[in-house]
Specification:
Elements (H helix, E strand, L loop, with lengths): L9 E6 L5 E6 L4 E5 H6 L4 H4 L17 E7 L3 E6 L7 E3 H9 L1 H14 L6
Keywords: Iron, Metal-binding
GO molecular function: metal ion binding
Organism: Aquabacter spiritensis
């Protein structure tokens, strides 16, 4: 799997009509459909990620979460507003690219963490 390009620049960031996913395309041809649940549980916010790797939180019950707004932040990121009220994460272009490139691995780790902690997707 290619490493995420730290200089990745999006050509499209579009919310799917049912608000359950975000489509992100990059100038090098990479194209991802990122489910809202995945984006919510991998939010770059301190609330989810903590301030160190060992502080990362496993967020249960987000299977049906929706994205209600995509707000540009300068020329480097978007803020996603979720229908559960979460809106503090800034999704930079390199972070969105990494989420796309590593989606299967990251979501697999999330599912395993849920199982280990006795939690559900809801």
């Amino acid at each position: 799997m290619p490493a995420a390009d730290p200089n990745a620049w999006p050509t499209e960031v579009r919310l799917i009509e049912d608000k359950h996913a975000l489509v992100v395309s990059f100038e090098d041809g990479a194209h991802f459909t990122l489910p809202a649940e995945y984006l919510r549980v991998e939010s770059p916010s301190a609330e989810v990620q903590g301030h160190a790797p060992h502080e990362k939180q496993t967020v249960p019950g987000k299977r049906a979460v929706r994205i209600v707004a995509v707000e540009p932040v300068g020329a480097y990121a978007v803020r996603l507003v979720f229908d559960d009220g979460h809106q503090t994460g800034l999704y930079t272009w390199p972070y969105l690219r990494a989420l796309g490139d590593e989606q299967e691995e990251r979501f697999g780790r999330y599912l395993e963490a849920l199982k280990t902690q006795g939690l559900t997707r809801g």
